[in-house]
Write a structure and sequence with these properties.
Elements (H helix, E strand, L loop, with lengths): L15 H4 L10 H15 L4 H47 L7 H7 L4 H13 L4 H62 L1
Length: 193
């Protein structure tokens, strides 16, 4: 395959198939995954098929941990918009007056429109609230999902760390096996002298 990333030059041809379909989502750059893979190859220097499989596991789990961490901010931003809508709706329903601003419009333009931010800020202050009320609503709405994500991240990190231990252990074993023949030769030389 001519369009393979440069890292494939470091991978034995007979196992290219292990790395041809990285666990990336459509919005994730494959180059970042392959850059991580290249760094891990450089660090662990796998020498046999078992080491390469452990390396693949390590890289995949590491990638998924990074993905889980990247998902937090977009999730919170989405929940923040919902929280703005909820808080604005509640304030306006308690005021029992004509709505000053549409709650959905406020949520959609909060981050981009200074006037919307000013109007919502005034509403919050008149009700004795701060932007902290929006943040509190955001965290309440996202708490369960954030907890589930944290559990998944912990699970993936545990698997990643186990793969790292397996890699280090395998690396030490391969190094020891490589030395054995030399040690046997040294022992023979000592016996003959």
């Amino acid at each position: 395959m001519s369009d393979q990333p440069a890292v494939f030059k470091q991978i034995p041809h007979c196992i290219h198939y292990l790395f041809e379909s990285p666990p990336i989502l459509q919005n994730e750059p494959a180059n970042d995954y392959y850059r991580l893979l290249a760094e891990c190859i450089h660090h662990y220097e796998p020498e046999d098929i078992i080491s390469w499989i452990y390396l693949k596991d390590f890289v995949d789990y590491a990638w998924e941990v990074v993905r889980m961490r990247r998902m937090r901010s977009p999730l919170l931003e989405t929940e923040r918009k919902r929280a703005i809508s909820i808080v604005v709706s509640k304030i306006q329903s308690h005021l029992k007056t004509e709505p000053v601003i549409d709650a959905e419009t406020a949520a959609a333009s909060w981050n981009t429109d200074a006037e919307t931010r000013r109007v919502v800020g005034q509403m919050l202050r008149r009700s004795g609230l701060t932007e902290g009320a929006v943040d509190a609503q955001m965290y309440v709405r996202s708490a369960r999902t954030m907890e589930e994500m944290a559990q998944m991240e912990d699970f993936l990190a545990t698997r990643r760390d186990a793969a790292a231990v397996q890699l280090e252990s395998r690396k030490a074993m391969v190094k020891t096996e490589r030395r054995k023949p030399l040690e046997a030769i040294d022992l023979k030389a000592e016996r003959t002298s």
